[in-house]
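Obj.: predict assembly geometry.
Materials: sequence records (below).
Method: joint structure prediction, all chains together.
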Amino acid sequence: KAGVTQTPRYLIKTRGQQVTLSCSPISGHRSVSWYQQTPGQGLQFLFEYFSETQRNKGNFPGRFSGRQFSNSRSEMNVSTLELGDSALYLCASSIRSENTEAFFGQGTRLTVV
Amino acid sequence: GQQLNQSPQSMFIQEGEDVSMNCTSSSIFNTWLWYKQDPGEGPVLLIALYKAGELTSNGRLTAQFGITRKDSFLNISASIPSDVGIYFCAGPTIRGAQKLVFGQGTRLTINP
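Observations (raw structure tokens):
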């Protein structure tokens, strides 16, 4: 069974640009969550999608958004990039949206210059 | 919000030694997850715990769900070089949701 796949692996953008990251969950998993990992703040929850609906959102500005498609694939978008958005963005998938294991992809390393 | 306090922050051990780390919270958790992360990679799930007092093993790894539901422990026996990495505990902040909060991590270094 293929794991969680995130694309691209690496991305370099300039301030003010926007970026879209993609996540394909494990087959059969319907919940997709996104996390931001930085050396200073650690792993922080961005949002969770289940059946194409955003179920929970973390404490991030509105520049961070996401969506989920009918095949459970998810994308997250960051608009008007800032230097502080440089981070490893991780996607995790779960069979359902509660009390269950979350499996992570390899992440997308975003560098904003 | 809920926070997980993980300790120690780093460990330097000799190959073959046993390792213990723990995670505590001021709030009750219904699930505890332990992950290992290698540089530049995503966290890999090691063990999931769902019941207070539960003790679960995965090879040389053993984890326990504390009976107060506010802590969890991870032990690694007879460490080997591939155990090097950062270990994270995590738990859902909302019952019935997949919104995880993570500890700060324990960085394990093994001296050959």
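Conclusions so far: The longest strand of chain A covers residues 42-50.
To do: check interface contacts against the pulldown list.
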